[in-house]
Specification:
With 361 residues, this protein is mainly beta. It has helices spanning 2-18, 44-48, 93-103; strands at 27-39, 61-74, 77-91, 112-137, 140-165, 170-180, 195-207, 212-238, 242-244, 250-252, 255-267, 272-282, 285-294, 297-309, 312-319, 324-330, 334-340, 350-360.
């Protein structure tokens, strides 16, 4: 934790030494919430319901990033209480097919080798955030947020191997290495670990001229959550106890050998980046091109912002990777935006909901 406090002291010193004197004494109470989920494999509701359902599209990635932030802004400063929930999965399409078949009682294909790979990160955290915004140039600003986070919910690790289903027999082996707060795979009783650490966000905005402006944000640019005694399992699961039932469905009773103990573990959140470029088409209309990156996934979008009133803006945007539309409303006191790739939310593979409100006093 010494590095965190050293970074915080440096951050505070730089803020005070470069800050301008503001005579505006107003405080702003604010609430920000952001939820975004994306799945290449099945509707989000179906994945939450333990994969049970009629829809399946293979794919290799699913994730959700959510935060809720309640705080106060004053001058260039802000301080807030934050809650966040993160779940990220990367897998092969074969792995998705095996899991989907198992959850929906679908017989697997014979005489085929399956490439098994799953990499996941999950945590639920809460903590405090401190932020400051610098005006570097007249038309260029930079903001830094530092969050101190604590969590007792953890799941991170990998499963990889091969599995072959033949006409009358089978063969396979999987290597497992993961840390957790609750072992849902092998049902090992454990003490919940407690982790603490930091996450640093960097935001900027730049007005190039009267027609063009840009803004961007790196979420979790730097992050580290440390668990001193995290339960872990490192094992090999062989196919010695895999069988088929009368309908050809896989019946998995693997023979597992390995190590279960406690170890020090450091978790890093997947980095995220948002970059938007704006063009003032008319007095009341702006065009926007966006780039959002989550880990190695890239999302590109185009949209428009309409000023329907002095303090009211309407936003529309289309994302080309997820085929999702965003509709947003922004006023002087609150903003809301809804993102979905389906008219029926229960069938959505991409879903986002943003809400923010602010009150000056």
């Amino acid at each position: 934790m010494q590095r965190i406090f050293s970074a915080l002291i440096t951050f505070l010193y730089a803020s005070f030494s470069s800050a301008e004197i503001h005579t505006d004494s107003n405080y702003q109470l604010y609430f920000d919430s952001h939820s975004f989920a994306y799945s290449e494999t099945a509707p989000i509701e179906q994945i939450v319901s333990d994969f049970e359902g009629p829809h399946f599209n293979g794919g290799e990635n699913s994730f959700t990033h959510n935060f809720w932030e309640l705080g106060v802004r004053h001058s260039n400063w802000k301080a807030a209480y934050v809650i966040r929930y993160d779940y990220s999965l990367h897998y092969t399409s074969d792995t998705a097919e095996l899991i989907y078949g198992d959850k929906n009682d679908i017989a697997i294909e014979k005489n085929r080798e399956y490439d098994v790979y799953l990499d996941l990160v999950h945590t639920r955290a809460l903590g405090l955030k401190l932020g400051y915004q610098w005006q570097i140039l007249e038309q260029f600003n930079i903001g830094v947020d530092i969050s101190y986070l604590k969590t007792s919910e953890l799941l991170e690790g990998k499963v990889e191997g091969k599995f072959t289903a033949n006409d009358n027999d089978y063969s396979g082996e999987a290597y497992i290495n993961y840390v957790y707060s609750q072992d849902n795979l092998l049902d090992r009783p454990t003490n919940k670990p407690k982790g603490q650490g930091y996450a640093i966000d960097l935001a900027w905005d730049w007005r190039l001229n009267s027609k063009y402006r840009m803004q961007g944000k790196w979420t979790d640019l730097l992050s580290k959550i440390t668990f001193d005694n995290a339960p872990f399992t490192k094992a090999t699961a062989s196919s010695n106890r895999i069988d088929y039932d009368d309908e050809g469905k896989i019946d998995v009773k693997p023979l597992v050998s390995g190590t279960q103990h406690y170890r020090k573990h450091r978790l890093q959140f997947p980095r995220q980046m948002n970059v938007d470029a704006f063009y003032q088409l008319q007095t009341d209309t702006e065009l926007v091109a966006g780039w959002y990156q989550y880990g190695d996934l890239n999302f590109y979008s185009l949209g428009a912002i309409y000023n329907t009133h002095e303090a009211v803006k309407l936003t529309t945007r289309f994302d080309f990777k997820s085929n999702a539309f965003t509709l947003g409303l922004d006023t002087s006191n609150f903003s809301v935006a809804l993102t979905s790739d389906r008219l029926k939310i229960k069938n959505a593979r991409t879903f986002g909901l943003d809400f923010a409100t602010r009150i000056e006093f």
